[in-house]
Write a structure and sequence with these properties.
Keywords: Hydrolase. The protein is mainly beta. The protein contains 5 helices and 33 strands. Strand 21 and strand 22 form a beta hairpin.
């Protein structure tokens, strides 16, 4: 073989091996790097790219985002981090390449207008009606010949099903079911049932049975159309006229299925007493809706990150009268922070906490922040995080970063919080993907 050709082939092989090794190492180092990044206009962000080799980064919209001050293309490595300067709202793509040629990663960058909201902390009463009638159990109907049956169970209707229509009639209240069942029983005709189960629409047919004890036609179902409770307001966004609260989904207490909202309200509420948290036994706020109290807002959505709806003005008892900036997840640091919450009456107070851990999340997930209560006043009054405290805003360095969501059952001084950006997405203030994982902790 020609010596020059041999040297060439050897050089190409060496370059290929180096590229292969460099690419695999780079991919490993870039795996935690986000596929999508939210930035606030006018707030620079520095990203430390842990690459053992040098890579190039280019942006397709330099009018939206600048790299390292002014460049459209720049180099990054362990020693040279990447600084992003968001100039105006819009969407840009960062393209990262190894040796200027081998594609490594594409990052979507969403630049959002500078965003500020008013932190809450107020205890709120929650009243919600489901978008249909929720099945929470089966019961036996005793007929004239003492036979027992559950027509609903025999028709295949399951606990957790949401019945939306009977004979084509849209259901609004539980009393509607009794009326339709009575009419169908007297005419000896089956009822056509439309229900939703796990996001699927299902048709069924049910024949009411006459209950000799109640002297009425029954479906053999325990049903519910509403729920009520207390929680904490997280934020009010005056520019958009919307709010976010709770930080976690409202579920039916019997079926543990998320409630599909038909309508609802949040109301003024006052804390009357606290059952303190202890290891293995989460405590709770005891509160009541204020008689003749003001309706604070509507409930339009119930998601993994809380309840959301319209609100026309900042509620009373706010610690903050003006809006403050929000911080996205990659700005949050382990260390001191504070929460806003109520432990007596309607007075919102600041309490010290420590951010123990911050998760890296490329998509919405509920377990974003691990926090620990460090304020002796709050520990004395509550023992730590209690039920009804969920939604309490978390503030660090003058920015709203998230909301308390769950308590660690065996360590009530500690719990989880969610990132504020996921709540802002579900409130419709910023755009994004709202898919999320399940939460298996006790709601705060």
């Amino acid at each position: 073989m020609n010596p020059n050709l041999r040297i060439r082939l050897l050089g190409l092989l060496t370059a290929f091996i180096i590229s292969l090794i460099g690419t695999s190492v780079a991919e490993g180092r870039l795996s935690p790097f986000p596929d999508e990044l939210n930035l606030l206009q006018g707030h620079d962000r520095q990203l430390n790219v842990a690459l053992p080799v040098q890579a190039s980064v280019s942006v397709d919209r330099p009018d939206v985002v600048r790299l390292n001050g002014s460049a459209e293309t720049t180099s990054v490595s362990i020693r040279s981090p990447l600084e992003l300067s968001p100039l105006q709202s819009g969407v840009a793509k960062l393209n990262m390449k190894l040796f200027g040629q081998i594609p490594l990663k594409t990052v979507k960058v969403n630049v959002i207008p500078d965003l500020k909201v008013i932190p809450g902390g107020q205890t709120i009463g929650v009243k919600v009606k489901s978008a249909g009638i929720l099945v929470v159990g089966h019961h036996q109907v005793i007929s004239d010949n003492n036979q027992k049956s559950s027509p609903g169970e025999e028709a295949g209707i399951q606990v957790g099903d949401l019945i939306t229509h009977l004979n084509g009639v849209s259901l609004k209240e539980v009393k509607d079911v009794a009326q339709i069942a009575g009419e169908a029983g007297k005419s000896k005709k089956p009822i056509k049932v439309t229900l939703t189960r796990a996001g699927q629409t299902i048709q069924a047919s049910i024949r009411p049975a006459y209950d000799k004890q109640d002297r009425a036609w029954r479906l053999g179902l325990y049903i519910r159309d509403s729920a009520a409770g207390v929680g904490t307001l997280t934020f009010y966004a005056p520019d958009q006229g919307v709010y976010g609260a709770l930080g976690h989904v409202i579920t039916d207490m019997n079926t543990q299925t998320p409630i599909v909202v038909g309508s609802g309200q949040i109301l003024q509420s006052s804390v009357t007493s606290i059952a303190k948290s202890e290891s293995g036994e989460p405590g709770e706020k005891r509160a009541h809706f204020i008689k003749e109290g003001k309706t604070l807002g509507t409930i339009e959505r119930n998601t993994h990150f809380g309840i959301f709806g319209k609100m026309t003005q900042n509620p009373e008892h706010s610690v903050y009268q003006e809006s403050i900036p929000v911080a996205f997840s990659d700005e949050i640091k382990e260390g001191p922070a504070e929460i806003l919450t109520v432990v007596e009456g309607q007075r919102v107070e600041r309490y010290k906490v420590e951010i123990v851990h911050v998760s890296k999340q490329n998509a919405p997930q509920t377990k974003g922040i691990v926090l620990r209560i460090t304020d002796s006043r709050l520990i004395e009054k509550t023992g730590g995080i209690v039920q009804g405290m969920s939604g309490s805003p978390i503030i660090q360095n003058g920015k709203l970063i998230g909301a308390v969501t769950h308590v660690f059952v065996n360590d009530p001084k500690s719990g989880y919080g969610c990132f504020i950006e996921w709540m802002l997405q579900d409130a419709g203030i910023i755009q994004g993907n709202s898919k999320t994982g399940e939460q298996n902790l006790k709601a705060g």
